[in-house]
């Protein structure tokens, strides 16, 4: 009996001797990484059962705020009102701000207008989905069947059907005289 009492006494001292530090949860370091990671993503955007865009990405990470990133790049196809592929957008990295519905593309960004056979190349581009506009303040190169235009800064329709280069730095014609 005496051994049982000593064992209980030792356990009591050990149990009461271990204090747990109570931490303030507001001072704890919070996890800010992705809450969801999807692979081989295909997202379709439509209106009245008509396909408007198709977004594809090898990896999409979503965060607690609802924002997302495409760390391995993304590719978007834009369709006209008749359902025909009109233009494409691709970049090596992408980010989506769900609050403003603006996408950010970086690294070898290319927009192709397939109907006009025009191509925009830049290193950084913003795409405002609500306004169907793309823009950048970086160097741009637009190749058309007749010429190459270069400059710094651009605003355009998302399909590249109409655009304005802010500071034109070069224009090279392909036509022979």
From TrEMBL:
Record GO terms (molecular function): lipopolysaccharide transmembrane transporter activity
Xref: InterPro entries: LipoPS_assembly_LptC-rel, LptC
A Gene Ontology term for the protein's cellular component: plasma membrane
Pfam families (alphabetical): LptC (PF06835)
Matching PROSITE patterns: PROKAR_LIPOPROTEIN (PS51257)
Name of the molecule in the record: LPS export ABC transporter periplasmic protein LptC
Organism: Pontibacter flavimaris
